[in-house]
Amino acid sequence: DSGVTQTPKHLITATGQRVTLRCSPRSGDLSVYWYQQSLDQGLQFLIQYYNGEERAKGNILERFSAQQFPDLHSELNLSSLELGDSALYFCASSVGGGSGNEQFFGPGTRLTVL
Amino acid sequence: SQQGEEDPQALSIQEGENATMNCSYKTSINNLQWYRQNSGRGLVHLILIRSNEREKHSGRLRVTLDTSKKSSSLLITASRAADTASYFCATDESFKTIFGAGTRLFVKA
Questions:
Q1: How does DSSP assign A26-65, residue by residue?
Q2: Calpha distance A54→A32 (Å, rounded)
Q3: Contact in structure between B105 and B35 (CB atoms under 8 Å)
Q4: What angle do CA A31, A85, A10 make, to 5 degrees?
Q5: B82: helix, coil or strand?
Q6: Taking a C-beta distance cutoff of 8 angstroms, is the pair B73, B64 a contact?
Q7: Nearest-Cα residue of chain A relative to residue B2
Q8: Could you give the CA distance from residue A108 to residue B15 in angstroms, rounded to a whole number?
Q9: Closest approach of A56 to chain B, Cα-based (Å)
Q10: Contact between A48 and B2 using a beta-carbon 8 Å cutoff
Q11: Which residue numbers of B have CB closer than 8 Å to A's CBs?
Q12: With an 8 Å Cβ cutoff, is A43 touching chain B?
């Protein structure tokens, strides 16, 4: 158990809908990362927050948005869902925000868009 | 785009044998990390090697880094069935963590 929690574990929804994925980092970790893992794209970095501020942005679609709250938990919002958004979404956390921090991954949320 | 590319894509070995996976990357790095993922689960950090290090050990894991060739290798010695998993290298590019496509290792008992 990494100490990172993600809810829900599974999510099935329809195209065009909007969903929110939630992540609670390990106690003491200030950074939260979001990743998308699919068979064709592999593990893609989406976005990183450090202590409430956006630190780095990867291949995150405009339909997706995220935020980190004062209690350091984070939410990833996915809207106007398409079939291709079906994937495993992972959250990870680390103590620091810079390069070389060991990241602790949550169990993931499996999103299925029908 | 992928910063790290692993090779081979898949590897099948017998228990007790050694497994070697390679990772190549494109830009200069400060460090390189290796992670492991059991099927459909979250990644687990294995080891980090800094750009000024050439080799690092952790238990049955040995990682090398050749910055002149922009490559790293992960060696798992005396493999066990429980080592069956996917292994990924990861580098940082402007604070973005870039993972390679991974090597799928299957260790037969």
A1: PTT--EEEEEEEETTTEEEEEEEEETTEEEEE-S--TTEE
A2: 10
A3: no
A4: 70
A5: helix
A6: yes
A7: A44
A8: 30
A9: 6
A10: no
A11: 2, 30-31, 33, 40-45, 48, 50, 88, 92, 94-102
A12: yes
Encoded tokens for A56: 């780095």
**Token pair 């790290």 is at which residue?**
B4
Inter-chain residue contact A42 with B99, CB threshold 8 Å: yes
**Segment B10-56, tens digit of pLDDT:** 999 999 999 999 999 988 888 999 999 998 889 999 999 999 999 99
3-state secondary structure of B83: helix
Q: Is A96 on the interface with B (CB under 8 A)?
A: no
| Residue given tokens 């922009």 in the structure block | B70
Let me know: does A31 contact A50? Beta carbons within 8 Å: yes
- Sign of CA pseudo-dihedral A60, A62, A63, A64: positive
**Length of chain A as a residue count:** 114
Q: Which pair of tokens denotes residue A31? A: 């950074």
Q: Which element (helix H / strand E) includes A19?
A: strand A19-24
pLDDT in tens, A5-40: 999 999 999 999 999 999 999 999 999 999 999 987
* Cα distance between residue B13 and residue B6, in whole Å: 17
